[in-house]
Amino acid sequence: MNRIILIVLWSAVLLLQGCSQVPTPQSRADTADRLVGGHGWKGYAVDGGLFQLQAYGPATRDPVRHLRVYIEGDGLAWISRSRPSSNPTPITPIGLQLALADPTGQVVYLARPCQYRYGLACAPEYWLARRFSPEVIAATGQAIDRLKQRYHAQSVILVGYSGGAAVAALVAAHRSDVSALITVAGNLDTQLWTQHHSVTPLTGSLNPADYARLLHTTPQWHFTGGKDAIIPPLIVGAFAKRFAEQAPLHILTLQAYDHYCCWADQWPQLLSMTGLTQLLEDY
Questions:
Q1: Residue 1: pLDDT over 60
Q2: Taking a C-beta distance cutoff of 8 angstroms, is the pair 85, 174 a contact?
Q3: How much is the pTM?
Q4: Which of 115, 127, 243, 262 could join 111 via S-S bond, C-beta 3.0 to 4.6 A?
């Protein structure tokens, strides 16, 4: 990434954390454990083939018809403007916070490869240039198969935050059991995103915009922040232009929101005011 964007990203992370040094991977995992502890959720590994992915979900395994899977953002990809992170576990797991804020209950959270669980296949390329590679998408899809089995679900609704939105869209494009796709501050056109910020292309990654044709009949809701300088609304706007006017696609821009604020805090209200709470309960 170029220096300007890295400074913006890292400054925002430090501001949110109110700290002067990077928390260890274990302390970041402890943060997630504390978040889920008060909700009766527990963490467990999900087999994704090449990667073992971390999931958090309700301790009970009551069968659900449509399982809502929240996919985390890119996490801590960079330590500084020139130094990649050695572990992408997020400092502030906004995808997890969104999942915990979901009021409907038929929810599970899925981390990205190498977040929380660091295996032999983990290498920086999988949270840098190849973060949306075919093997990452395949591993996520396999993990979702396991989650469906665990909760006896017939279909899934995918919810992706930031880079997790790209993963969710790419997974959805290759499955027939996705009832809906919801994204928050989503990177849905990675080529345009790298061009916009004048950074190195994500060589080895897939671009969700290139697979839009496979999502024309999938109901979609995309939330963007009017003040989001990291993934501005124009990225989602470009993705939307790939669809016919009659496609079941909805874009909701919150002018006062940026990339971090205030998605998790206001998530129940956002779902309610857009009619998604009732719609998702009806699925």
A1: no
A2: no
A3: 0.91
A4: 115
